[in-house]
Structures are given as structure tokens and as C-alpha cells.
Amino acid sequence: MQNGPAVRRRKLGAELRALRTGAGLTSGEAARLVGWHQSKVSRIETGASGVKPADLRLLLDAYGVRDRHLRELLLILAGSEETSGRHRWWHAYRGVLPPTYRDFISLESQASAMRTLETTVVPGLLQTAEYARAVTRAAVKDLDEDRLDTLVEVRLARQDVLRSDPPLALSAVLDEAVLRREVGGPGVMARQRRRLMEAARLPQVRLQVLPFTAGAHIGLTGPFVIFSFPSTSDLDVVVLDQLTSSLYLERKEDLVAYSEAFSTLQFHALSPEDSLDYIAGIGDGV
Predict the structure, then answer these.
(1) CA–CA separation, 89 and 96 (whole Å)
(2) Cross-referenced Gene3D superfamilies, in alphabetical order (predicted)?
């Protein structure tokens, strides 16, 4: 388990090594093409050191990488702030957001798909403003109103990934506790449940409820997120949220284990159609 930057360096290095090999180049040949020492290429490929955006572009040009989205994704992994459009909006909040949160948003903005199990709160991408405000106020101690407003603003801005072209494909399994816990009071929860029902009807969103009657299940160990990326599955990553940080799991065996766990949870959860009826029933006092 590592922090976001360390994971990104290794994933970037592994992808660059694959691209170099695919181009039929040795590390020494690649180094000569861009005017470096071979050891610099090796350090980048092992994740021992990062790579500047300008140097990354040199490597991608040398390897013949023309895919725009793949180039932007690799630049994000390199920590670049120079990518276009919605991918860089969070940099305006650098003085407010902790690095781990910025790391999470950068992955979320570049992912093509996101699978998430939530056991305590509504996923951030589906929260209403008033629900987000109540959750943030409870989670962050001694928060003044200006900072609270900013954090809620960020939470809502993240939701643009569901409206982008193409949109993020979101699959969410919610424990029933998420729907019944009165965050912000009954009125806030009623409006939040309606928001969930609206989102569940979007073609890019698959929402399932895991009812209490499902009993003990593999998700009892806690919530998690799996990000998947276009062009290559080697960049996929599991994120576990902690109270003060996030942990990133990158090993293939971890990805397989969490992917299988999510499939199991989907199997035991209600279907998307039955989940809509279940949420409506909770709103009716069932």
C-alpha cells in the first residue's frame, strides 16, 4: 500500500517501459534518442524518480505515441498541471485541498470507469449540496464557513465527470445503512434519496442497494473504490479511504481480489430496478 504519488510513479514507469518495448527499443537506445544517460530512463521506469512533463513528451514522441488521451493520462500521472479542459480544474484549490484529496480527484477525472462500495455515506459524485455540507461538517473538525463552502464547491465540481463527453461510467453498491442514516436530518435525506433515484436512471450510472437482509458480506471490511482507465488496464488502481489519508493498492492480485469482491457484492445486491423501488420505499417510510 502506497500513497498516490508513489503509485503513479510506478504505474507511469511500467507503462513507459511497455511503450518502449513496444517500439522495439532498449533503454539505452531510448536514452540516446532523447539525449539522456541510460540510468535516467531506468530510474523513471522503475518509479525510483519522477519525470518532468517536458521530458515525458520527449519519451512519448520517441516511442511514437500519438494517442491524445493516453498522452494526457500519462501527463496526469507525471503530475502535470498543463493538461487541457476539465482535467485541471482542481489546481485552483491547491491551497485548500490536502494532497491526498487532489490525488484522488486527478485519478477520478481521468478514469473511464469507477466501481465503488459505500457502507456509510452516499458517494461524493451523487451527493446533493446540503448532504455534502452535512457530511463535511461532521468529518472535518473546526471548519469555518468559508472553507466549508469551498469543500462543498469542490465536491459538486467533481460531479462534472458524470456529464463529460464521454462520461465516467459509475457502478455503485450502497449498503442500506447509507440510505437510512439521517445525515443532515429527514428533509436532507429525503432530497438525497430523490437525487439517487434521478442519478440511477442515467445510462452511465449503475446503482444497487445491498439490503440488511443480505446479512454478512465481503464488504463489511469497509468501503473502496476501483478506478479503471482507457487504453490500458495496467493503470487501474484500488483506493481505500482512511480518516486522514488514502491508501492505493496497485498490485495485480489486489486488483483481482477487489474486482472479484465487487462482483460478489453486485450479485448479492438488489438489481438496479429493484434498488430504485427499495429507495422509493424507504422514502415512503418502509
Answers:
(1) 13
(2) lambda repressor-like DNA-binding domains
